[in-house]
Structure formats: structure tokens, C-alpha cells
Design brief:
The complex is a heterodimer of chains A (about 240) and B (about 325).
Chain A: H1 3-17, H2 19-39, H3 48-77, H4 80-85, H5 92-120, H6 127-154, H7 158-174, H8 187-195, H9 197-209, H10 215-237
Chain B: E1 4-13, E2 16-26, E3 30-34, H1 41-48, E4 56-61, E5 64-65, H2 70-76, E6 77-80, H3 92-102, H4 108-118, H5 134-146, E7 152-156, H6 164-179, E8 183-188, H7 191-197, E9 200-205, E10 208-213, H8 215-222, E11 225-232, E12 244-249, E13 252-257, H9 260-273, E14 277-284, H10 288-295, H11 307-317
Parallel strand pairs in B: 3-8, 3-9, 6-7, 7-8
Antiparallel strand pairs in B: 1-2, 1-4, 4-5, 9-10, 11-13, 11-14, 12-13
Classes of the chains: A mainly alpha (about 240), B alpha/beta (about 325).
Amino acid sequence: MIQTFYYLERDFRRWVRGKINVVSALVMPAAWLIFVGLALPIRFTDNYLDFITPGILVLTMLGASLQGGALLMFDKVLGFLPKFLAMPAPRETILFGKILFITLRGLIQSTVILIFAVVLGAHFLDPLLLIQTYLILMIFGVLLSSVMTTVALSLEDHDSYSAFNAMISMPLFFTSSALMPYDQMPGWLATIARLNPVSYAIDGVREVQVGIFPVNTFLGLIVGTIIVLAISISVFRKATV
Amino acid sequence: MSAIEITGLTKTFGTLTAVDRMDLSIDREIFGLLGPNGSGKTTTVKMLTTILSPTSGDASVCGHSITRDPRKVRDRISYVPQDMAVDAKLTGRENVIFFAKLYGVKRPRDIADEVLSKMELGDRADDLARTYSGGMRRRLELAQALVHDPEVLFLDEPTIGLDVAGRKKIWEHIIDLKDNGMTVFVTTHYMDEADYACDRVGIIDHGVVVANASPEALKANCCSDIISIRADGQYQDTVIEGVKFIGQNGDELKFEAPSGGETGFALARALSDSGMKIKSFAIRQPTLDDVFLSLVAEQEDTGEFDYRRFRTMLRRRG
């Protein structure tokens, strides 16, 4: 399983060498926080920044994972995947390496957001809060990136992947509890939002903020991740290109 | 036990039979699989490299079954697909070290040095692969493939899109590997290259291997040499043994003979003895192209146009 880290190392080197990738990954979260967190003339809560930060953190992980599946799609269409599949390294390590890279990259972006948020006045410096937040974000990242890498493996080309991505990202984003609390939403939206896995992670972080340990969120995310990972692994073991 | 032993290997996609009951045995040689687009070459290679499972039949590679023991097969082979996939943002050395680590090679750095200099990339090893020419990229891929000292090397269209010098160099390296005991299974479209480099070629058409022999044997069995002689004077039905008169066109006489080089001169002498004045003399030996065209039903390329591949070829030419 050590090969997982070699695949991770490869993706990391490639990412760091594309300077625009890194700049974009760091500027985008900042833009989110400033434009959405500070500019929207909404006051649902006493401190909207405290309210919106968990939402943006989770949405960053969402964005990173949705984008991340494309990495595997490129490996596939450019001919890297056939080479990797013909190697003795366990095929699952290709999957694990990608999931790990996508999640780590998302966590790096989240860290930038956290720093910005704290500078702008959000209350996020409690160590226990930070640890639990990172845990939720990590599990959420693993869950979504395994979904997306499996999708990338199953779809034919990059266009189909983009189409799939566009189809699910908007609804997931706007029907989550990221931007407003449930009691401010229309009834139908609140119902959808409660079913949305993205809200699940966001609500988890919000519970941590007010000092509650979100047992249900952790359990739900972990069970979900195990199921999705099991499916991904079985798809990968049988993978052909 | 041959390095590659294929028995009844078949792959169907829906109603299409891509590879039809293939039987081949290949050992310590360069074996070239030739065929038109969509004839089943790449499907065969993908099955032998265990990234596609056969519908029926089996093959053993280095003594291990591709269906029952694919992991052990992957341990002993390397596969270089036609796409030319190297990480442009990594240096040549990083590209190779990455593969050496994945294969679990001991001392990956030393091995990388070794294969890079073997592929004549030593002095460019620390440049980004982005700056490499097509030929260098292909040699970098060969270097990657050699890190674990495989017994069998699978190459899919290794010279596609390369310039003449680049192609020649790739083949020299492949021949060198074979001379050191490696079995090389290669697919190609280029008949002249197969003729030059392959010890044996198989011609595949609609998934069926229609010929399997050395290029020399195939050419000899396919068609005789054509001797064409331009001469003044009346042709007197002069023939020598083993030569067949085919026809006359103006002052050009055409003959057919199994080995035109030797009989041609005797024939020319016989003609001048009969009173004709020889002006010119030419022998055309059959090429692998002739063999190919005689065996593979002439057909229009009706395969789906692969835009992606077309685009990559254009890019490489630029």
C-alpha cells in the first residue's frame, strides 16, 4: 500500500509546479469568504461570518472533490491509467492516492479560508473546535472524492465528466444549509436541505462551534464513506480501460 | 515454455468479435503484430497486459495465466501504450524514479540513472519532460518500462508520430533489448519498420491471424520477384528455368521469378545471346506491403475516426 504515497507524491509535485493551480486554489476561497461572507447584506445571526465560515469550508471541500475527479479522468484519457493498471502495484492504490491527494488539497484550501476568516473576525481558534472541524472536513472529502474518482473511471471522456460535475454541483450547493439557516428557508427548500449530504457536514461543523459533539454527523459520514469506498474499491479492482 | 503462449484467445464486444480464437507462441524475439485499424491489435495487447479480460481462451505470459494470475503477469512485464504519456511537469529523472518506486525496485535512484543513460537521456535527465522531443519522450517511456528488468515488453505503436531519426533510434534500442534476451511484442502500422526489426510478424485482420512467419518467409511465399527488362530487338520466347514470362509492353519485357537477383542476370545474358540489345534492367522484390495487401482484404477504413488520437498526432508534429 506504500504505492499510495508514490501516486500522492506525483500528483503533489505536478500541482505545485503549476503555479496558477496553487494561486487559484488560494485566491478562490478568499474571494468566497469576502464576497459571500462580508458583502451579502444578510443578517440571519449575530455574526454572519461565524455562520457562513462552516458553509464555505464544506463547500471548498465539495469544490475540491468535484474538481479532483478530473485528475483521474485526465490520467485515463491521456494514457497514464493503462500503464498504471498494467503494473503489479495493487490497483486500489491508484484510487487511494487520488483520494488522499484531493482531500489533502482541499484541506490546504480550507486552512487558507480559516486563516482569512479568523483575520476577518470569525471565532475559530479553539483547538478542540479546529480538530473536530478538520476531522469532519477530511471524512467529507474522502467520501466525495471517492464518489468522483469512481464516476471519472466510469464515464467516457472529460466532457461527460464536466457535464456530470455541473449537473450535481449547483443543486448540491444551493440546496444546502451553507448560506442560510433552515428557519429562513421556504419549507420545500428546508426539506431538501436536510436530506443534502453537504448540509450534513455543515451542520456538523456548526454544532462543534456551539460546543456539541456531533455524534450523528460523524457516524453518518463514516458509514457513508465506508459504503462508498467499498463500491469504489470493487470498481477499481475490476477496472479496464 | 515460451514467454508468451496464447491459446484460443477471444474477445467480443457485443456482436463484434475483436479477437477471434488467437493461437500464438512467442519467445525471445521481436514479434510484430500488424493489421489495419480496428483489426484487434490493441485489444490483443490489452488482454496480454491484463488490463482487459478475454471473453474466452487464455494466454500464459512468463508462465502465468493472464486470467488466473494477472498480478504475477504484471510483475514480469512492461506495457508502453501508444498515447505517449509522460508527466510533462516532472523531470525525466522524476518520471523514472516514480515508476521505479511503484515497481518496488531497490535503490530506485541508481536504477533510474542506469536506465536513463541506457536510453541516452542521461544529460537531459533533470530537464522537465515538457522540453523533450517526441523521440525523447518515447525513450523516456522505455526507460520507465525497464526499471524492473521485465522479461516481456509490450509496445503499442512505438514509433507513431516520430520523425525518421527518432524511429530509427527507438528500433535500435528495441533490437538491443531483444539481443539481451528480452521478448518484445510490438504492434505497428509501418511495414518497412516491421520488416527491418521484427524476427517474426503476425498479420491480423478482423481479429483473425492470417499469417505468422518471418518477414523473409512471408515475402517469399507471397509473390515472386518481378524482373523488368527493356530491350531492342525481337523477343524469341527465350526463357530460362524458374522464370516465367508475364508480358510485353512496348520495349519492356516482364518476367516473374522466385529469386530475381540470381536468375535475372542469367535471363539478361540469354536474351542478349538471342540477339536482343538490353537497355535497362530492374528487379522489384516484394515488400511486406505486398504481403499485407495480398492477405488483408482491401478495404476502406470504416473505423470510427478517433479525434483525440488525430489531435495528439497533430500536436506531436508541431
